[in-house]
Every structure is written in structure tokens, then in C-alpha cells.
Amino acid sequence: MTEIVRLHAVPNHRVTDPEPLWREVLGQRLRALRASRGETLTETAERAGISPQYLSEIERGLKDPSSEVLAAVAGALGATLIDVTSQVTGDLRSYAFGVPQISNQALLLAA
Asked: What is the pTM of this model?
């Protein structure tokens, strides 16, 4: 695997952790949605028309899916493309403004 090089940090951000990448936050959000439905990678991937391996890579933040793939995965999870992208944008915005992020476990408990 290659090392991820961060091109920039959030200006005036007090947190020492690097700014999360879109694909990382997207993967966390998709995994939380799938887990809240009690589904396996295979079940969700089959409905989305992609391989379980590819879905796993998306969930782990290793792949940047196309909008078509993202829409298919969102649909397989009972969500829309706008639902997922809005949630990810909100997560990133929370990080940028120093608002504590909701953990995946908290998301699952709230579901």
C-alpha cells in the first residue's frame, strides 16, 4: 500500500489529527448505514451490483467510488445519493469547525 499524503490541513484547526478525506468519511457513513440495517457486505454489494471486495474497499476509505456506484450503494441501503452526500458533508463540516463527530457506535445506537 502507498502512504496517503495530505495536501493541506484545515486553517486554524486545533486538532492534531489530519483532516479526514472524503472517501474515509464516506466509507464510515456507508458502513454505519449497512450495520444499522444488520446486513452483510455480500447482501448490500449484491443489491448494488458490485463485488463485496469493492464495497469493503469503499467502506475502509481505500476507494473513491463513482457517482453511479455511490448511488447504487446508497439505493441498496435504502437511502438516496443526496442523503449520503449530505451526511458526509455534515460530518466533514463538523470536523472542520471542531464540533465533535458522532462515532459509528453512537450512530448505530441511535438507529
From this structure: 0.73
